[in-house]
Amino acid sequence: MSLLQAIPHPSCVWCVLPINSQGDFITGDSEGVVRYFSKDAALTSLDTSIQLTNQLINRVIEEKKKRESGPSSEDLAKATKWEQSSQHRGKSEGQVMLFNKNNVLIAAEWSVASGTWIEVGQVSGKANQGQINSVSFDHVLPVEIDTPSGPRDLQLGYNNGENPFVAAQRFIDTYELSQGYLQQIADWILQRTGQSSTPSIDLSGNSNSTSTPSTVASKPSFSQIIQVYLVFDEIPGSFKTKAISKIEEFNNEIANSSSVQSLSVNDIAALNSSIKVLSETSYYHSSKILVGHLKPLLQILGW
Predict the structure, then answer these.
(1) Is-above-0.85 flag for pTM?
(2) I need a labelling partner for 148 at 20 to 30 A (CA). Which of 59, 91, 178, 187 fits?
(3) Distance between CA atoms of residues 111 and 118, nearest Å
(4) If residue 15 lies in a helix (H) or strand (E), which one and from where to where?
(5) How many other CB atoms are there within 10 angstroms of residue 184's CB atom?
(6) DSSP per residue over 99-144, as a string?
């Protein structure tokens, strides 16, 4: 099995839901944005779809630049002061939170056992830069290989513009690996640094084997964003009554039209149930709605 498509998002994706058998799906992220993706040419060729796709790409690029440039003064201002960390209890083991420690943005993990935040390190925003044996590299990539004595966690250093075969040979020499891995490691470096779509490294097989780039007989049709919806961070108390009232008003008008299908009594009941769940649990950021209850919601989006 090989990766056919990777769809970057500007923020953390919390959920992915398939919509139909044609491959349409929606994603929800930490910014409270729902994005609808499709590979239907009739939809992806629309001007609005092309515009949304370009907007998504630009947002991803912007967020990547922000992460690589390091924390801004705004990020520091928003972060909780480290000396006030005891006033903010974590919700679960290993939860990560950012703090402002002497005007330096740091990450800390919550420890249930000690009931305190444990400092992990400084938030540098320098992507995957790092050092191996006191030597700095633009990329320090983690590599796990299987050996007779068990798995080994190694680090591979690579600099932008460097010949990947030079970096691969350095890695082999450092850890005294088989020379037969050279091609695989070079291909893997290109893939991890975004310079190629060659297959990922596999160091668990025969030491004399070498990898060759895989080919795809025919280019698959890729999914493309066709619609974006903004969602509430929390559902206002009056939202339920107003939303259902307005939906029923539109539904009554549509019921008299033969061009669009109106909602049934069961659909209205499902919407009532979904809005009730969101109203009561949205502040937990973990609301659960039955998949079947999404049908009338999607129907409304098509009105």
Answers:
(1) no
(2) 187
(3) 7
(4) strand 13-18
(5) 21
(6) EEETTEEEEEEEETTTTEEEEEEE----TT-EEETTEEESEEEEEE
Q: Are the beta carbons of 182 and 210 closer than 8 angstroms? A: yes
Asked if the model's pLDDT at residue 147 lies above 80, the reply is no
> For residue 183, which phi and psi values (nearest 5 degrees)?
-65, -45
Enter the tokens of residue 54. Answer: 């370009």
Whole-angstrom Cα distance, residue 247 to residue 243? 6
Instruction: Go through 193-222 and write b for each residue having 16 or more CB atoms within 10 A of its CB, e for each that does not.
Output: beeeebbebebeeeeeeebeeeeeeeeeee
Instruction: Say what the pLDDT of residue 117 is.
Output: 92
Mean pLDDT, all residues of the chain: 76
Instruction: Count CA within 13 A, CB hemisphere, residue 158.
Output: 30
Share above pLDDT 70 across residues of the chain, in percent, rounded to a whole number: 77
CB atoms within 10 A of CB 22: 10
Asked if residue 198 has pLDDT above 50, the reply is: no
Residue 265 and residue 37: Cα distance in Å, rounded? 29
- Residues 164-191 pLDDT 10s: 888 999 999 988 888 888 888 888 887 7
Angle between helices 294-301 and 265-281 in degrees, nearest 10: 100
Neighbours of 171 (CB within 10 A): 24
User: What whole-number distance in Å separates Cα of residue 171 and Cα of residue 156?
Assistant: 6
